Amino acid sequence: MADEPSFTSFHNIVAGKPRGSEKTSYTVDPATLENLWEIPVATEQDVHDAVTAAKDAFKSWKKTPFDERLRLLKAWGDACRPYLKQFGEVIMKENGKPRAFGEFEANHSFNEAFNYFLTLKFPEEDHTVNDRDYHVRYTPLGVVVAICAWNFPLGQPVMKALPALLAGNTCIVKTSPFTPYSGMKVVELAQKILPPGVLQVLSGDDRLGPWLTHHPWVNKISFTGSTASGRKVAEAAAKGLKRVTLELGGNDPAIVFPDVDVEKIAPDLCFGSFWNTGQVCTAVKRIYIHKDIYTQLLDAMARAVNKWKVGAGTEAGAMVGPMQNEMQYKKVRGLFEEAKQKGYAAKFGGDVKDTKGFFLEPTIIDNPPPDSTLVTEEQFGPIVPAIPWSSEEEVIESANNTAMGLGASVWTKDLDRARRVAEQLEVGSVYINSYEKVSFRVPFGGHKDSGIGVECGPNALVPFCNMQVLHYNFKTA
Ligand code: NAD
User: Fold this and answer.
1) Ligand 1 centroid to residue 434 C-alpha, Å
2) Total domain count for the chain?
3) Ligand 1 atom closest to Cα of 233?
4) Where does the Aldehyde dehydrogenase domain start and stop, copy by copy (predicted)?
5) pTM, full prediction
6) Are residues 100 and 75 in the same domain?
7) From the CA of 223, how far away is ligand 1's center (Å)?
């Protein structure tokens, strides 16, 4: 059918139209190292044209009644849902994750995200105090730029664009240069539904993010990525007093108490540490295990991981795909090499095999020193330190001894204790007896260097708005 979207050709979208570029690029499938599809490299002129189109479109989009915006955004979801398998396939190829996980991301985006974000309303309030009524209302900010990381290439554009647009803003998605495809396609599918300039997408090189964040007509930057880049985005935003939400890196501790059912939690701890090949902001990145069950739990984790297949996303039963890109592969490979050089023992994994793609085995390093890179820095890959502990007070101190504050988990049958410990952890989310199971229904954000602001949850429209209070004085009426 002529109208069927192509999942092998990809364009920037500016003012409702596909746009190529003189300079083009492509990424590689991290499992096979084969080139994927050609993509344009956006120029500074493309940025200016997209921001101009977004600024123009804002004038009417903000006046479009809320229910009409809702109707159009629902239609966007309806236009995407028939292609869930195709999106799953593209995510698998661009990101490296196993096919089932690619399809999970597509399903999560087109069902969970659309279904939830499109139930949201502005949390307007009315108050009466003495002779006055007060009405609190919300107005959109203008042009929003949604900057995305490479670990969830479809999920992030969707979860940023939906609340931004529903609130009445226009939005330019900037995909990661490592995983541009599913983000470009989901924006393309909106073009027959949304007015030109309301939702656009740009893919480009390392200059693209700074061009967007420095553009004077951009009003809000919703950023997901590393803490180092987040600081640069905050600097750029400061100049124009642009609103900013920063969802940054993590170094999540798991604290395991001796009363747990070791066999039961071992597979969950493995999944929390190694799913998406450890490339998850809230992956378990340090495992603190009570000394009485230290060996027993690590043995059980080794048995659980042994059942997993490391392989290309196309292989049946693959659980752990390759690292997404060469830069991250080399960085994490360096941690494997450092562990070997410094004589840290691996409880399982530990060897780097000679493979064509960017594959690394799930690995637990046994009690490396507290000042080792593996403990102090976010690894963002499948190599995680395990550390024995004996005092609750000390383990809480160790868990908090990091500049990061994204998430943490506490594992115990005693829920009072779990609550007591959780409340002392300096993080935005604490998962009790679980790894993170993403839900758009609850707020998400980091403490300390893990971010500024919150995404998702019942107030997810608010970060995309100005607040305005109307004060009614009865006496003068
Ligand atoms: P990154 O910071 O390298 O890149 C993220 C995005 O920012 C990319 O689109 C990149 O092109 C862009 N960018 C980079 N420098 C920029 C600049 N100066 N101005 C504007 N844009 C710029 O991060 P990454 O390697 O893609 O992702 C991995 C990191 O993201 C990890 O630290 C991970 O923990 C974090 N992350 C956080 C969350 C969260 O919700 N907190 C979710 C996913 C990933």
Assistant:
1) 25
2) 2
3) 19
4) 23-468
5) 0.97
6) yes
7) 7
> Please, what is the Cα angle at 193 between 99 and 466, to 5 degrees?
95
Tell me: do 415 and 291 sit in the same domain: yes
Is the C-beta atom of 244 inside 6 A of ligand 1?
A: no
Q: In terms of domains, do 311 and 328 share one? A: yes
445 falls within a domain: no
* CA 325 remoteness from chain centre: 16
C-alpha–C-alpha distance, residues 461 and 326, integer Å: 36
Locus of tokens 């890959």:
381
Say whether both 105 and 237 belong to one domain. yes
Residue nearest to atom 20 of ligand 1 (CA): 209
Do 383 and 360 contact (CB within 8 A), yes or no?
yes
Catalytic residue from among 103, 188, 247, 455: 247
Residues 221 and 267 in one domain: no
162 within a domain of the structure (yes/no) = yes
What is the full per-residue pLDDT of the chain (477 aa) written as tens digits?
448 999 999 999 999 999 999 999 999 999 999 999 999 999 999 999 999 999 999 999 999 999 999 999 999 999 999 999 999 999 999 999 999 999 999 999 999 999 999 999 999 999 999 889 999 999 999 999 999 999 999 999 999 999 999 999 999 999 999 999 999 999 999 999 999 999 999 999 999 999 999 999 999 999 999 999 999 999 999 999 999 999 999 999 999 999 999 999 999 999 999 999 999 999 999 999 999 999 999 999 999 999 999 999 999 999 999 999 999 999 999 999 999 999 999 999 999 999 999 999 999 999 999 999 999 999 999 999 999 999 999 999 999 999 999 999 999 999 999 999 999 999 999 999 999 998 999 999 999 999 999 999 999 999 999 999 999 987 665
Active-site residue 247, yes or no?
A: yes
**Ligand 1 atom at minimum distance from 328 CA:** 25
By DSSP bridging, strand 24-25 and strand 39-40 are antiparallel
CATH number at residue 124: 3.40.605.10
Does the beta carbon of 89 lie inside 6 Å of ligand 1? no
The answer to whether residue 477 is domain-embedded is no
Structure tokens at 121: 């309303």
Q: From atom 8 of ligand 1, which residue's Cα is the shortest distance away?
A: 176
Q: What's the gap in Å between 122 CA and the centre of ligand 1? A: 29
Q: Strands 407-411, 252-256: parallel, antiparallel or unpaired by DSSP? A: parallel
Name 262's Cβ contacts closer than 8 Å, sequence gap at least 6. Answer: 293, 296, 297, 300
**Enclosing domain of residue 292:** 252-439
Residue type, 377: E
Residues 222 and 256 in one domain: no
Question: Is the CB of residue 232 below 6 angstroms from any atom belonging to ligand 1?
Answer: yes
Which numbered atom of ligand 1 lies nearest the CA of 406? 41
Is 172 in the same domain as 315? no
> Within 10 A of 443 (CB to CB), how many other CB atoms are there?
15
224 alpha carbon – ligand 1 mean position (Å) = 5
Ligand 1 within 6 A of 464 CB? Answer: no
Residue 455 CB–ligand 1 contact under 6 Å: no
Task: Give yes or no: residues 206 and 104 share one domain.
Answer: yes
Write out 203-218 in H/E/C secondary structure.
CCCCCHHHHHHHCCCC
412 CB near ligand 1 (under 6 Å): no
